[in-house]
Design brief:
Blueprint lengths: L1 H24 L4 H22 L4
Length: 55
């Protein structure tokens, strides 16, 4: 149960970062938004696998 809560909080944090970056920097730029969003997801995935993947 604890692991599920951590995963949910991690996904919510990732979504908050994506939305915040979108609203702050890339309102009307589709391709730049898409590229940055993919990069953010990849960075969050790498951190998740590094720190939580072995648990």
């Amino acid at each position: 149960m604890r692991r599920q809560v951590v995963v949910v909080l991690y996904v919510v944090a990732m979504a908050a970062v994506i939305v915040g970056v979108d609203l702050a920097f890339f309102k009307n730029r589709f391709w730049e938004r898409l590229t940055v969003n993919i990069g953010i997801v990849l960075v969050f995935s790498a951190f998740y696998l590094r720190f939580f993947g072995r648990a």
